[in-house]
């Protein structure tokens, strides 16, 4: 029996590899012949945190660098590189590693020290610069979990761009400084940028500006309140205007494009300056890990993420895995920390079953703290139902997990 485990992370509890490992342990515990099970772990992500890990699990090599963190302190970041000489040299870069909330310094309680106006994306640009120097011709830029709202200007600075005030001086980093932006100089941009293909792996479709833009929607998650949100919006507006002067009116249209507001407006910089094309993050990751190819012949696929909600059915990892499995007529179970969706809606979406950790725990806090143990319990329950249906006589076998919605 072949079972595919393709979960995303359970944020705050376990990364995707840990989720898969716990489920596998539970599944094997329910089998009378655990060594005969062919269980394949394929960690996935939606373009944010976990994207590099997914690429590494698919055979990419790791590259570790010390780069400029979101508030200027050095941080260690990893990106993934494809060394296969028969394919296009590719690097998978996860913005959150260098410029994300997880890269911020912490207070005594372990909470991130947010800097809504001062945080920047320079470290992400340093990762890109290194990958280009190493010969990468294709850069997959996974965005999500960013700590900054600088419109990607820090990233571009690391690649040779200059952002100047009225006196011709280079601006300090961070979105707040963009209110003083008078001119953009792209003449020093690395020539390697023009020779590379950039893919913006983003699961949000927000524009750069306005009520649905980077500052208004995501600024508060990074510590911005009231006047700070307005200051970030003003800075991003000036960046849009100066980009039009430097690149032409097309840059103004790019600011309206879906994904321009991703990662604090880094999406705009990637689309307008790097010439990136945007793709849903989960689609990019499922291609990286070759899920469609690797699930062939499987009896069951198990996916999951920390919280199932309306966004999950709009293009997050579980839905992407489900659609791939449906195309191969393989039933799919979803496991989550909690579900904000009614079971009927999940069945209509196509999931054969849903299991939540919260229903096994006293409260949300304990379900997160005890996630590995609870995931093992879920794996064991799934295994018991699955293996009990396998009768030696094929005519008497039952199917506890039929393909739904395919």
From TrEMBL:
The keyword Transcription does not apply. Pfam families: Gly_kinase. Keywords: Kinase, Transferase. GO terms for biological process: organic acid phosphorylation. One of its GO terms (molecular function) is glycerate kinase activity. Gene3D superfamilies: Glycerate kinase, domain 1, Glycerate kinase, domain 2. The keyword Nucleotidyltransferase does not apply. Belongs to the glycerate kinase type-1 family. This is Glycerate kinase. It comes from Brachybacterium avium.
